[in-house]
Design goal:
Pfam families: ACT_4, HD_4, RelA_AH_RIS, RelA_SpoT, TGS. The structure is a single chain. The chain has 739 residues and is an alpha+beta fold. It has five domains: 198 residues, Hypothetical protein af1432, CATH 1.10.3210.10; 155 residues, Beta Polymerase, domain 2 (2-Layer Sandwich); 72 residues; 65 residues, no CATH class; 76 residues, 2-Layer Sandwich (Alpha-Beta Plaits). It is built from 29 helices and 21 strands. Strands 1, 2, 3, 4, 5 and 6 form a six-stranded mixed β-sheet that branches. Helix 1 runs parallel beside helix 3 and helix 6 runs antiparallel to helix 7. The longest helix is centred in the last third of the chain and has 32 residues. It is globular, with a radius of gyration of 29 Å. 36% of the residues are buried.
């Protein structure tokens, strides 16, 4: 038992509460402090018997969430009150009616949006996705729901150490999958970066610690380098009478990790590891000219990379971000990213949506940036109104709307349209008008005729061609990326699709009756998985349209009977709770996780083919609908989606020490070609480490050698030793693992 000092805890609670009031003071109107005090007292009373997994008093959490709302997002009294009370309805006897009576309709609406849906969910549905959809329904009325949810998630991620491993995986993945892109979309860059860094900390701690240490080790030399770099710029800015500050900062841990991974390069080779930000204090009318003047000063001293100029002042990003970016070459041969912006732009970049309203309320406020965010919220409303599919379908559509990069294209009259990267002529047509989209037969891009699926590039001028005979069809969904276009196409296909779905449902019911199987949500979910369709609606539709032959449903029964005929006692579970219960029954109270290599006799599990885990990899178990438990690497390309949509099916799994099995792994080798290189590589593989190869493919082009080898190893240590030895072969430049 942990000894608790109640008096010390009481002092700490008051200290945090006073800090909240102190930071909120500039935002408060008369009577607000009383309201915050009342909310704090209600929350303290409601949570007084509760503790977090770390052992701390639960009230620390709502206090910290309220602090993030004030300090890091810049929200006011309504949000502070809602943040303090956000868990009261979910965790205590207090009802929404009580909140509304004491604190008003607005606070009650926000808390309703933040309260998870209680009750039983259909087999195979996703509780996480349903809760997310519910929260977003409130977004269309009040964006503060999302902002408080982001503050809540940030605090949960900061305190994730105390949670069990499978919960860390579920919460971490959900954060990377949904909440970090959402923070980005709302312009909350520092929160987005911290969420990504914390996700990495729990998913791949080794990589996180390595990069953090490298950033820390290079801090002194980095600061010295930045000081030297900015001195001439500072002197010139002062000489020209600018009011400014210059900040130097390293890239976030996750962005460095991402570059190392996607470009397959070491830490030292990460492009523009250094970044500086020049923030100038100037009037709104003078902003654009002043930023370009600063750009001119920077490029007087340092040569810019012409391919790395980003002008988000003339055309702000869709989330309202405004800044001028260039990458300049320092005297020591290192690239430095230089961001130039005004105080207003910096506020909006740091505080996102909340800052827009601060500036919108002022005179001469810029409409262009805040307007694009308002447009996005309107798009989300459209998406919500047109979505009558499953919550998972909704999540997919919504994530497609959290794009990171944009393309700027023009109408024939020269009007600018901002679309997500990868948008097509058909997306553009729906952006103009639903009717134009529905009748689109092609387009002229820069006067050249193109198909509806043609991908647009920055600066394209697009003219849409239409025909009254044209009608949307299902294939159109493959040619669009914007949620607006998807929603409108689905809308046009809805009645036809509904008919096929009803026919399909009737056929499935009839076939199951003939096969003497129950028509239940569990069986239908198993059928959906067996026929590899994403949702039950899609399964019914494919049966109704004849894409899935009705007679092939019989093969599902044969498959089920084969599974049943398997020997030995098998754990049959549908989620993490039922798995833990069954494994404890079979193996005793101390067992709550799957031991890979040891539990084959009691648990039906397989290693996932999408990521080929080997001993030493950090893994998790996932309860599938038809194929027992699958073991995935946490770095698996599918892990994020599985854990974000079906976190309740994630179970703890680890390798047993007694492994004597060979596992398939893939290696990619790049080098300079020479006579005898392949012979030297195969010698290392077969002679030195007694490794069996399954396949080797080699491609040589103009002196560059690229090979991929599939081989059997018994652990990550074995694989690392092999990579190390292969890297020493003369001519080999890089050896890396692939899934």
């Amino acid at each position: 038992m942990i000894k608790v000092d109640i008096e010390e805890e009481r002092k700490e609670i008051l200290k945090r509460y006073r800090k909240l009031l102190r930071l909120a003071k500039p935002l408060l109107k008369s009577g607000d402090a009383k309201l915050i005090k009342k909310a704090f007292n209600v929350a303290s009373e409601a949570h007084k018997e509760m503790r977090r997994k770390s052992g701390e008093p639960y009230i620390y959490h709502p206090l910290e969430v309220a602090l993030i709302c004030v300090e890091e997002i810049g929200l006011g009294t309504t949000s502070i009150v809602a943040a303090l009370l956000h868990d009261v309805v979910e965790d205590t006897d207090m009802e929404l009616e009580d909140i509304e009576r004491e604190f008003g309709v607005k606070v009650a609406q926000i808390i309703d949006g933040l309260t998870k849906i209680a009750g039983v969910f259909d087999y195979g549905s996703s509780q996480q996705a349903e809760n997310f959809r519910k929260m977003l329904l409130t977004l269309s009325d009040d964006v503060r729901v999302i902002l408080i949810k982001l503050a809540d998630r940030l605090n949960n991620m900061r305190t994730l150490d105390s949670m069990p491993r499978h919960k860390q995986l579920k919460i971490g993945s959900e954060t990377k999958y949904l909440y970090a892109p959402l923070a980005h979309r709302l312009g909350l860059y520092s929160i987005k970066s911290e969420l990504e860094d914390l996700h990495l900390k729990f998913m791949d701690n080794e990589a996180y610690e390595y990069i953090s240490k490298r950033i820390s080790d290079t801090r002194v030399s980095r600061n010295k380098f930045i000081k030297t770099f900015i001195t001439p710029i500072e002197n010139e800015l002062q000489a020209q009478g600018f009011k400014f500050v210059i900040k130097g900062r390293p890239k976030s841990v996750y962005s460095i990790y991402n570059k190392m991974k996607t470009q397959n390069i070491p830490f030292e080779e990460v492009f523009d590891l250094f970044a500086i930000r020049v923030i100038i204090d100037t009037s709104y009318e003078n902003e654009k000219a002043a930023c370009w003047q600063v750009y001119s000063i920077v490029t007087d001293f340092y040569r810019p990379n012409p391919n790395r100029l980003r002008d988000w002042i003339s055309t702000p990003r869709a989330n309202g971000y405004e800044s001028l970016h260039t990458t300049a070459m320092s005297q020591t041969g290192q690239w430095v990213e230089v961001q130039i912006r005004t105080q207003r732009m910096d506020d909006i970049a740091e505080r996102g949506y909340a800052a827009h309203w601060k500036y919108k309320e002022k005179e001469n406020a810029p409409e262009k940036a805040a307007g694009s965010l308002d447009e996005w919220i309107t798009q989300v409303r459209t998406l919500l109104e047109n979505n009558d599919g499953s919550a998972i379908e909704f999540m997919d559509d919504f994530r497609g709307n959290l794009f990171h990069d944009e393309v700027f294209v023009f109408t024939p009259k020269g009007d600018l349209k901002v679309l997500p990267f990868g948008a097509t002529a058909l997306d553009f047509a729906f952006e103009i008008h639903t009717e134009v989209g529905g009748k689109c037969i092609g387009a002229k891009v820069n006067q050249k005729l193109v198909s509806i699926g043609h991908k647009l590039k920055n600066g394209d001028q697009v003219e849409i061609l239409t025909s009254n005979k044209q009608r949307p069809n299902e294939d159109w969904l493959k040619s669009v990326v914007t949620s607006r276009a998807k929603a409108k196409i689905k809308d046009a296909l809805k009645d036809e699709k509904k008919g096929f779905m009803l026919d399909g449902k009737e056929i499935v019911q009839r076939k199951l009756k003939q096969m003497k199987l129950d028509f239940s949500s569990e069986i239908v979910e198993q059928l959906r998985a067996f026929f590899e369709t994403k949702t039950t609606s899609e399964f019914y539709y494919k049966v109704g349209k004849g894409i899935i032959d009705a007679t092939s449903i019989k093969s599902f029964k044969d498959f089920k009977q084969q599974k049943k005929a398997k020997k030995g006692p098998q754990v049959s579970c549908t989620d993490e709770k039922s798995f833990t219960k069954e494994i404890k029954n079979l193996k005793g109270p101390d067992h709550d996780q799957l031991l890979i290599g040891e539990d084959m006799d009691v648990v039906d599990y397989v290693l996932a083919k999408c990521c080929n885990p080997i001993p030493g990899d950090v893994v998790f178990g996932f309860v599938t609908v038809n194929e027992g438990i699958k073991i995935h690497r946490t770095a698996c390309p599918n892990a994020l989606e599985l854990m974000s949509n079906h976190g309740n099916r994630v179970i703890k799994a680890r390798w047993t020490s007694q492994q004597q099995i060979a596992f398939l792994a893939g290696l990619k080798i790049i080098g300079t070609d020479r006579v005898g290189l392949i012979s030297d590589l195969t010698k290392v593989i077969s002679n030195e480490l007694k490794v069996n190869m399954r396949s080797i493919t080699v491609d040589s082009d103009r002196g560059i050698f690229e090979g991929s080898i599939k081989l059997y190893v018994d652990s990550t240590n074995h694989l690392e030793k092999l990579i190390d030895n292969l890297s020493k072969v003369p001519g080999v430049l890089k050896v890396s693992r692939f899934d």
